[in-house]
Amino acid sequence: MGVNYVLLVSRQGKVRLAKWFTTLAPKEKSKIVKDVTQLVLARRARLCNFLEYRDTKLVYRRYASLFFIAGVDTTDNELITLEIIHRYVEILDQYFGNVCELDLIFNFQKAYFVLDELLLAGEMQEPSKKAVLRVMGQQDIIEENENAERGWGDVNIESVARSLQLYAQEARQSFGV
Fold first, then answer.
1. Which neighbouring-strand residues pair with 119?
2. What is the pLDDT of residues 65-87, one digit of tens each?
3. Which residues of 151-167 are buried (b: 16+ CB within 10 A; e: fewer)?
4. Which of 65, 73, 119, 122 is placed for a possible disulfide with 21 were both Cys, Cβ 3.0 to 4.6 Å?
5. Rounded CA Rg of the chain
6. Is the pTM of this model over 0.85?
7. Domains by residue range for the chain, with CATH
8. Residue 101: pLDDT above 60?
9. Are 122 and 71 in contact (CB under 8 A)?
């Protein structure tokens, strides 16, 4: 199973996460992101979640307002890749408690940490959701301890992000968006 890259793209075409498991020039990465985003966003909901792009296969799935896209080798199994994407979303869901796009914007480093625990060099590293969540919990404890040592102990980024998210939801409701 060789995942070449993972992209999280909003419906508006904004890249929320990009993880590369192959070495490419920055221009090539930008071209791939642009092309893949256009290809996936242009597809109707009822179409197949697999498509060919250059020498790779794109496997994607939409969750709420985000498209989770994996570029894999043409010989790889698409259904296993869909399962990896789903596993990633489930872990994010459990970690953030019903994950949304704002969680990934304000806590992008956590989304990368989860992906790094799940995949290593494009290969499935840890299939156990519990193991990944346990490591993430340990990482959070270490981060809290380091923040407390620096005097940042009373600043909780997650609660600030949640507050901003609630404020944005209230604003959308009051303006009828």
1. 124
2. 899 999 999 999 999 999 999 99
3. eeeeeeeeeebbeebee
4. 122
5. 17
6. no
7. 3-175 (3.30.450.60)
8. yes
9. no
